[in-house]
Each structure stands twice: as C-alpha cells, then as structure tokens.
Amino acid sequence: MSISNNIPNQKLPLQGAGGLIAILGAGESGVGAAYLAQQQGYDVFVSDFGAIADHYKKQLQDWKIRFEENGHTEAEILNAVEVVKSPGIPDGAPMVKKLVEQGTPVISEIEFAGRYTDAKMICITGSNGKTTTASLTYHILKNGGLNVGLAGNIGKSFAYQVATEKFDHYVLEISSFMLDSMYKFRADIAVLLNITPDHLDRYEYKLENYAASKFRITQNQTGADHFIYCADDAETIKVMEGKTIAARQLPFSIEKTIETGAYLDKDNLIINVHQQHFQMSINELALQGKHNIYNSMASGIVAKVLELRNETMRESMGSFRNIEHRLESVGKISGISFINDSKATNVNSTWYALESMTSDVVLILGGVDKGNDYSMLKQLVKQKVKAIVCLGKDNKRIHDAFEDDVEVIVNTMSAAEAAQVAYHLAEKGDTVLLSPACASFDLFKNYEDRGKQFKDAVKEL
C-alpha cells in the first residue's frame, strides 16, 4: 500500500500561510502547482530528479521561481512546510520516504489546488476509459453553457487553471497515483468507471490495494454529493459490499435495468436521475463499441445530475470527437482502415479496442510489458485477428501467448516497419489496429510519440 496513505490526518498549512513549499517534479502538474503556490504567498522551490523540459524551465524562470534539475537538494526540501508531489513519483522514492518519516505532508497537485477554488468538482477515475469519459463530459457541459475547465491527467494543470481562471465547474481526470496523495479534497460528483489490474507494481502487486486507491475518489463525500459507478464491474461491486458510501449512488449497466441511473433497453440508452428522463439510440452515439456505451452512460448521468437539457446532451453525445491516440481513425488505403489506439498501454484497453472492431483485424501489439496477462485477449484474437505484428524489442511473451491462435506473428522494430508489414498482411475490408497493450518506452518517448510515428507511417504508404 502506498506509504502516504498511512498518514491521512496530517495537519496541513492554512491557505496562504506562507513558508516554504517544495514541488517534486517539474512537469505540467508540478509547474502549475508552483505558480499557484507563489500566487498564494509561499516561498516556492521546484526540484526534479531528472532534466526539466525547456518550456517548463522557461516558465519557472519567467515567474522567478527557484528550481533545480538532475537531483534533489535534500536540506532544502526537508525544510519545507509541505511538499506537492508529481503523480509519477512513487511513494517508495527515497526523498518521499524521508519526508513522510519526518512528518512533512506530501500531497498531490489536485489536493493543493482544490483549496483555492469553490468550483464544483466532477472527478473521473477508472482503469480504462477515463480520458474519453472526461473529454466527453467536458464536451457536453461546455455545450450546455456551463463555465467549465478540464484538468487532472488531461490538458492544462489544474493548479495553473485555478490560479488564472474562474471556472464554476471542473472535470478532472484522476489517476490512482493522484488519489493516493489526496486527503481533504472532495468530489461533488465522483465517477468510477471500472477496476482492472493496472500499475500493480505500485500496489505491492495486490489488486485490493489498487482498488482501495480508486475508491479514495469517494472519500469526504456527503449525502449531497453523487457517486456514479458501473454496476457490471465485479471488482467495483466487491469493494462496495464492504464499504459505506455517503454520496447518492447512481449506477449504470448494460446488463440489467437500473431504476435510478442508466441502463440499456434494446438499442436505447436510458438515463433516469431526479425524475428526469433521457433516451438516445446507441446507434446515434459518436462513440461506438460496448466500452463506449459505458463511457457515454457515465457522462450522461453527470449531465443529468447538473440538469442539462436533453437536446444539448443528444447533440453533444452525437457530435463528440474522440481524443488523439484513442481508437483514432487514421484513414483508409486500398479499402483497409487504419486505427491508432496507441493510448492502449494495458491489456484491458486492447480488449476494449478489439471488442469494438467489426471487421477482420491485423493487430499491432507490443512494447514494454508490465507483467501482462494476455489470456483475456485470446478469445477475441481467435474471433477477429488474422495476424499480429509485434512492435517492440522483446516480443517473446506475445509469441508464447498467441502462437496457437493466429497463423502469422511478425516482429518489427519501428512504427514505419509495423505499418508497412500490417498493410501487406491486410486485405480490402480489413482493419489495421495499433493497440499495443504495452508501454512505449523501449522504442518511443511515450505513447503519443508512438501514435504520431504510426500516423506518419500510414500517410507514407
């Protein structure tokens, strides 16, 4: 279990109390937190164990905020009244352990920034679908005329927006790593999409620890708040059986009828909240596939809780364009469709992508394997995949997992090579799907770089 979870009742500094705040990590969240802390009258010191990207360095210099890179000055950081930690830094990092041992509060950017805004918080978490659901929710609320910001794991830093904007609502995509360092923060509307094994290396390889982290999204909620969750998700239901949740519960399901919440009636998505009724054919949804029905239900419930008009919801849910690198259509060549799902960095995401395919698939898989269990993909691979193109330095586990299920498994070492090989293996009417189920760091900077290189390669075909 993450170390900072053991100290939830820390005494935190009062707003604008001054003193030194140290920021660990100088990415989007860290630099945004530094700006807000300075605005609130704190002495700010930013420290990154690695190199700081040039554009973030320039921002810190322009704002006259002290910073260091490629190492930590311990004496300075240990002298801070509070430390804001980047979600990418594990609780087991030596610097974090020292801070916790001496009783210095270590919190997330979301926790810190939440103190300085009265905006309503719509917080979305889950192992899969949270970026899509956060983006769709933001799209609906903005179209509905709400003064709304989008932040968290997506877009501009929440802290920076709190410092520079005056939004009435925020849609926040929140990861388990962020939740681990959140204590007093409260979600007005909390959404938990699903719980499947991911990032277990940060949770002692125990699914129950990871699940407990996800459920921190409900902490501090009151009877006036709302908790939206998937009634079909076994892990979510398992945790809820032993837990008391103060917020009003609004489940969604495609397997059973839900009285208050959302469900599927044949091809119609039905939402009933506060005696308000919404209905829409799933064929009219911009996002297709079973997993996207769940995402649309969650976003639709949020919209109904906030009493948006049915016309706005219907138009928004029909016009939404998905985020880059998530089931993104790259185009058609010789009748072959190319789809970029580079954001699928775990097996579950790839399962969802395959589940939504309606044609034969040439699947591009591989990268840095986080201890993947490929068995859950076997059935879909047998049904839909005619060939697998491996894109990674070490593809042995993919070969071992699928050698009995597909006739062709080919190794490639670049996005251009993978796109070319997949194109030659595909026929008219097929889909070439980049949905790697793995991290990208063996051959690429990140999943965005992998997706961009794939898209560029498709254009060159």
UniProtKB/TrEMBL annotation:
Start and end of every Mur ligase C-terminal domain?
A: 325-438
The Mur ligase central domain extends over 124-302
| GO biological process annotation, one example | cell division
Source organism, top-level taxon:
Bacteria
Q: Which GO terms describe its molecular function?
A: ATP binding; UDP-N-acetylmuramoylalanine-D-glutamate ligase activity
Q: Which reaction does it catalyse?
A: UDP-N-acetyl-alpha-D-muramoyl-L-alanine + D-glutamate + ATP = UDP-N-acetyl-alpha-D-muramoyl-L-alanyl-D-glutamate + ADP + phosphate + H(+)
GO (cellular component) term, any one: cytoplasm
Q: Which UniProt keywords apply?
A: ATP-binding, Cell cycle, Cell division, Cell shape, Cell wall biogenesis/degradation, Cytoplasm, Ligase, Nucleotide-binding, Peptidoglycan synthesis
User: Which Pfam families does this one have?
Assistant: Mur_ligase_C (PF02875), Mur_ligase_M (PF08245), MurD_N (PF21377)
> SUPFAM superfamilies, alphabetically?
MurCD N-terminal domain (SSF51984), MurD-like peptide ligases, catalytic domain (SSF53623), MurD-like peptide ligases, peptide-binding domain (SSF53244)
Question: How would you classify this enzyme at the top EC level?
Answer: ligase
- Supply the EC number(s): 6.3.2.9
Where in or outside the cell it occurs: the entry states: Cytoplasm
Q: In which pathway does it act?
A: Cell wall biogenesis; peptidoglycan biosynthesis
UniProt-annotated binding residues for ATP: 126-132
Q: InterPro entries from the entry?
A: Mur-like_cat_sf, Mur_ligase_C, Mur_ligase_C_dom_sf, Mur_ligase_cen, MurD
Explain the purpose of this protein: Cell wall formation. Catalyzes the addition of glutamate to the nucleotide precursor UDP-N-acetylmuramoyl-L-alanine (UMA).
Q: What family name appears in the similarity comment?
A: Belongs to the MurCDEF family.
Q: What is this protein called?
A: UDP-N-acetylmuramoylalanine--D-glutamate ligase
Q: Which organism is it from?
A: Mucilaginibacter phyllosphaerae
